[in-house]
Structure formats: structure tokens, C-alpha cells
Amino acid sequence: MYRSRLLSVAAAGAVALMVAGCGANTGAMISKSQTSLRPSHDVAAVLQKPDPAGIPAAVSLTALQRNNVWYNIDLPDGDTGYRWGYMHGVFQIQRTDDRGATWRGVNVPVRFDVGTESVYHGVENPQLAVVNLDTLYLYGVSGHSFVRAGTSDGGAHWSVYRTDLGADGFRVTSVSQPAKSQGWVLLAGTSAANRGVTLLYHVTNGGATVEQVKVGHLPSASGLPMNAQAVVAFTNLRSGWLLTTTLSGELSLYRTDDGGRHWSMRTLNPPKQILGAKAVKVYQPQLLENEGTFAAVFTTGTGKSSKQHVVIFRSRDGGKTFAGELTDQLDGAKANYEGQPAVFATPDYGYAVNDGRLLRSTDSGDSWLTVHSPSLELWLQRYPCVLAMNFVSYTQGYMLLADAAQKHTVLLQTAGLRDRWQPVP
């Protein structure tokens, strides 16, 4: 969670690229100084919404895992990177050194087969953290074992470690890798013996050592409420956030400044316009120095009258205080196959697709600009499923799209001008 992040015309084939990564808190090549460069919002025209409606379309991770298409990607520098996922029923990884024009296979030291263990609530098991061009960590659960595999030479050699969990039914749900040799991994219990239990592990020594961490005060394994949906993100080896939603609809932040030895907890309330709304989903935060931004989904009403609302939360002081912005423009928006309404390359710069067009924010989600791009909008009509999107820099970005059947994908890239998109050669 970390979470490094995913993403011709003659052949819209099975090519997948995602720059931000999936589940890893590593990625975009944007420095802190660049986050203060906020261009004018009048550089892109807001025009009539394109047809047809229904863009972005719904995505099923289970279908992607069985359709033999690549749907995860991370390119840390925009040129070299990795794509991964289940192909022909087995978890596989490939590497590119030319922006996705060609790919070669990477040895995966542990076999994961598609099936009941490969997905949980729209999140994939295992998860890959791309730390840099050559350093990868693979975290997953296989049977009773919590598996960690690491490589520092692009997959030529791996170190593999296993920890017996004492029961099956656990799944990896969130990963953050703030350093080469240290990571934080959340597991969720799904079997009758451990259903609703959340485990948090601190992984050190390149995966050789794991320590179970107590976050909350409750008697469950991690101290978190039962059946909590949770994500974890660390900005460095000491400072990290763990965010949860509960069955009662409460959104909570657990924060540490000493590497997880002590945690403080606070409840994050929805904006006053929807006060009393229930939180139903929280997504991976993007952290940089003392700033952090993340999306959460709330619901109001019940039954057929219920309505979902997207709220973007942001902090400028390491999570001590927050502001929450109700963002109706993101109702129905998607930025990856997990259904995240928007992804952030930095805590300031966010991107999403809604109503068949690209949306961009340069102020941590306070406002969103519709970027008119005829080329992108034509591709979205043919490939309405958004699997991954992100920017390596403010001017270089990628987007991975799939057709409605999720059996064919196209990787698009833009450089220099954000309103011009073309397939990767």
C-alpha cells in the first residue's frame, strides 16, 4: 500500500501498463518541489459530454484474472518497469526496458494459482511492490503460509520466506513498502475460523523477519474492529497511517510516528453537507513528506433511496488535522480496476475518468478540471473500462483501458501535452 502504481491503433492488443503500481506506496517520479507548480485551470476547455454514456464501465477483477490480459503495471522512471497478474491461471510477471514496446518474462519463485485465494473484495492476492527499477517484493498468502519474496536484480534471483499463519483463509489486502528492506502488510481473514480478523505485519530484513503489530485497543489480533476494511501507507520508516471503515460506517485514522510501536486513533467525520453519512470504503492514501491525500466513499439514505458520495480527505501536517471535500464530480468516476474514484500521483495532483473524459486536480481534490481530449475520448468509447492510470511526471502519463468484455486492453501514453493520447507502439 505504497500500493508503486498501473497502464497500435492497428492492434489494440493485450498490453497493460500502470505507473503508480497496485497496492504499493511507491511510484511517481514527482518531487516535492513539483507539487507547488499549479497550472491555471483555464488551459483546458470544458465542452459537451461525449457519447455514449456509461464510461467508465464496471470492472471485475475476477474476470480480468481469467481473461489472460495484463492488468497491473508500474514503471518507476517511465521507461523501465513491470506488469503482472494471472495469465493462463498462474500469477506471472514481465519486465520492459522500452516503455512497454517489448516485454520479457520474470521468474516468479512461488506459484500462485487463480481461484478462491486470488481475490478478496476486489483486491488481488498476491501483491507486488516495485521499489525501484530492480527491487521487487511479492507478498501473498498461500494456504496457511504468509509468503514474502524479494529480489534486487530484477527477478534473476529471489529470497523467499514463509510464516505459518495457523489457519487458511487469510488474504493480502494492502501493502506499503517505504524502503528496500522494510514493508507493512495487511491481511484479512475470510474463513469460518478467522472471518473478520485483520492482521498487520511489519516486514524487515528483506522479508526474513516479520512482526505482528497491535494497532488498536480491541482484543482482536491487530486491535482493529472486526470486519474492518483497512489500508496502510507509510511515508518513511517511522511515519505511517492505517485507515479503516467499519460495519457501523465509521472512518478512522490510526497514526504512528515511531515505526508502529505506538498508534493514535481519531475518527474522521464526513463533510457537513452529508453529516451522519456512513463510510463504506477507503482507498490507499498518497503520502509525501507531511502531506497526504486519500478518497473515501460514504452513503446516505437506505435501500433504493441510498446514494454514494465521494469525499477527498487531505492533511498538511502528517495526519494531525484533516479537511474533507465532498466531490460530486467524482460520482461514478474510476481510476483503476479496484474502483478507486481518483488516484493521486502526489498529495496535490489527482486524476480520474468520468462521463467519458479525463478529470484532473492540482489542489488535493478541492477542484477538478475536465480535460478535453478527442483522442482519449475516442479510445474510451471503444475501451470503456479503466484498469489503471497515473503520471510519472506532470507531463508524462499512461492509461490502461479494457473493452466492455474485459478481454482486450490498450495502453495509452501522453507526453508533453496532457490532452493528446496515443497507443504505446
Description:
Keywords: Signal. It is a single chain. The chain is mostly beta strands and 425 residues long. It has a domain at 107-267: 7 Propeller (Methylamine Dehydrogenase, Chain H). The chain contains 2 helices and 32 strands. The chain has helices at 61-66, 374-382, and strands spanning 18-21, 72-74, 81-87, 90-96, 104-106, 119-120, 123-124, 127-130, 136-142, 145-151, 159-164, 170-176, 183-189, 198-204, 209-212, 229-234, 240-245, 251-256, 264-267, 278-282, 286-288, 291-300, 307-315, 323-326, 343-344, 350-354, 357-361, 369-371, 385-391, 396-402, 409-415, 422-423. A hairpin with a 2-residue loop joins strand 9 (136-142) and strand 10 (145-151).
What keyword list fits this structure?
Methylamine Dehydrogenase, Chain H, 5-stranded antiparallel β-sheet, mainly beta, 425 residues, WD40/YVTN_repeat-like_dom_sf, signal
CATH topology name of the domain at 107-267: Methylamine Dehydrogenase, Chain H
What is the first-to-last residue Cα distance? Answer: 30 Å
The geometry reads as: globular
CATH superfamily of the domain at 107-267: YVTN repeat-like/Quinoprotein amine dehydrogenase
Helical proportion?
A: under 10%
Mean pLDDT across the residues is 87
Number of helices: 2
Poorly predicted runs: 1-47
What is the CATH domain class of the domain at 107-267?
A: Mainly Beta
